[in-house]
Structures are given as structure tokens and as C-alpha cells.
Design a protein that fits this description.
By secondary structure, the chain is mainly alpha-helical. It is built from 5 helices and no strands. The protein has one domain: 434 Repressor (Amino-terminal Domain), CATH 1.10.260.40. The chain has helices spanning 12-15, 21-41, 45-52, 56-63, 72-81. The longest helix has 21 residues, at 21-41.
Length: 114
């Protein structure tokens, strides 16, 4: 008997057949991290908007984990303003990738060790 479910690929955006699914997952993970940091820092939406150089409606959307029409680069900039180091690593794609590479985010919550 075939199961009543389909196993996820690990990317809900790809599972839904959305274009640019890697980028959408990347933005979702960055947004989640920004959300966590803003909650930890206890900033009001107005204070967060001022600190990040954006508008309060963008912060409201971020705090509700809703998609925001902000680039990946801008989300990374928000993270640096919130005291995070952001590192981008570019490396050759695995041979099975054929033409396209892959985007991902790794969040390290551990304190920096010198």
C-alpha cells in the first residue's frame, strides 16, 4: 500500500514547485534569524526599523515571519546591524548538480571562540 504522504525534499518551496526555491528558503532562514534576534533584543518595531534603516511595516512583516520584498543582501545587512557576522562561501557545485549550484544558510548560535 502506498503511503498517504509525500516525503519532503527538505525545501518546502521546492516541494511546492516555486521558482527560485533555494533563494526563497535562504530568505526564510535569514528572516527567522532576524526575528529571533529582534525578540531577544526586545526592540519595539519602531526602534528596530530605525536601527535597521527600514520602515516599521517591514519590521512588522519580519516579526510575523511573512515574506518581505527585501533582497538577500539587505537581510544579511540587517543581521550585521544586529551584531551578527555573515559569511558567504562560494565553492564548486557537486557533480550531480549539472548546471546550477545550490544556496543554503547555516546558523551558528554558539559563542565565538578565539
Amino acid at each position: 500500500m502506498k503511503p498517504d504522504y509525500e516525503e519532503s525534499s527538505g525545501n518546502v518551496f521546492a516541494d511546492l514547485g516555486l521558482r527560485n526555491s533555494d533563494q526563497e528558503l535562504l530568505k526564510a532562514k535569514l528572516t527567522l534569524q532576524i526575528h529571533k534576534l529582534l525578540k531577544e533584543q526586545g526592540l519595539t518595531q519602531e526602534a528596530a526599523a530605525k536601527r535597521l534603516g527600514t520602515r516599521q511595516p517591514h519590521i512588522s512583516a519580519l516579526m510575523n515571519l511573512k515574506p518581505v520584498s527585501v533582497s538577500v543582501g539587505r537581510l544579511m545587512e540587517f543581521l550585521t546591524v544586529l551584531g551578527q557576522d555573515v559569511e558567504v562561501v562560494v565553492k564548486p557545485a557537486k557533480p550531480r548538480a549539472k548546471r546550477r549550484g545550490h544556496m543554503s544558510v547555516v546558523v551558528r548560535d554558539a559563542p565565538y571562540a578565539a
